[in-house]
Design goal:
75% helix
């Protein structure tokens, strides 16, 4: 029960850390989106309800803190979650090369959708940002994703842990 109460706070903490501290390490050049890797992990390992709610909450927090178009990250993260669920049903999702390539593809897809939204909503032509910003970001995200998948797999055990020791006499 405490897991479901702490989850929104942990996701908000993740988004705040991602938007503040991790941007300092990347020097404003590319952003490291751990939240995207969490959404892809949810698509591979969680059921539709829990993963969908997780994707919705992370997207909402990112929209509230960083987005110029409200609802953009919510839409993107739910789209990427659905895509990850479809891919997880068809392939073995534990191979590091598959995880890295799929994360890179999703990062490029996210960048393409952001560029298209800015083009149609703001009439801003930022197509140059795809090879300059989103391609290096996809490479970095692809390299980080197998490590973060292992870390998230270790943390997924906590809500399902139980005390299996027999009862002792007081």
């Amino acid at each position: 029960m405490i897991y479901y109460l702490l989850l929104p706070l942990l996701l908000l903490f993740l988004v705040v850390v991602q938007t503040t501290i991790l941007d300092l390490f990347s020097l404003g050049w590319i952003s490291i989106e751990i939240s995207l890797i969490v959404v892809i992990y949810a698509g591979f390992h969680l059921d539709a309800l829990r993963g969908g709610i997780l994707s919705l909450v992370i997207g909402f927090f990112l929209d509230c803190l960083t987005s110029a178009i409200f609802g953009l990250y919510t839409f993107l993260y739910i789209l990427i979650f659905c895509l990850a669920m479809i891919v997880a049903g068809r392939v073995y999702g534990e191979k590091p090369t598959l995880i890295a390539s799929f994360t890179g593809f999703c990062t490029l897809l996210e960048g393409l959708v952001i560029v298209l939204f800015y083009r149609f909503v703001f009439s801003a032509d930022i197509l140059y940002a795809l090879p300059e910003v989103f391609l290096p970001q996809a490479v970095v995200m692809g390299l980080l994703s197998p490590l973060l998948f292992r870390l998230l797999h270790r943390f997924e055990v906590f809500p399902h842990a139980a005390d299996t020791r027999p009862a002792r006499r007081i």
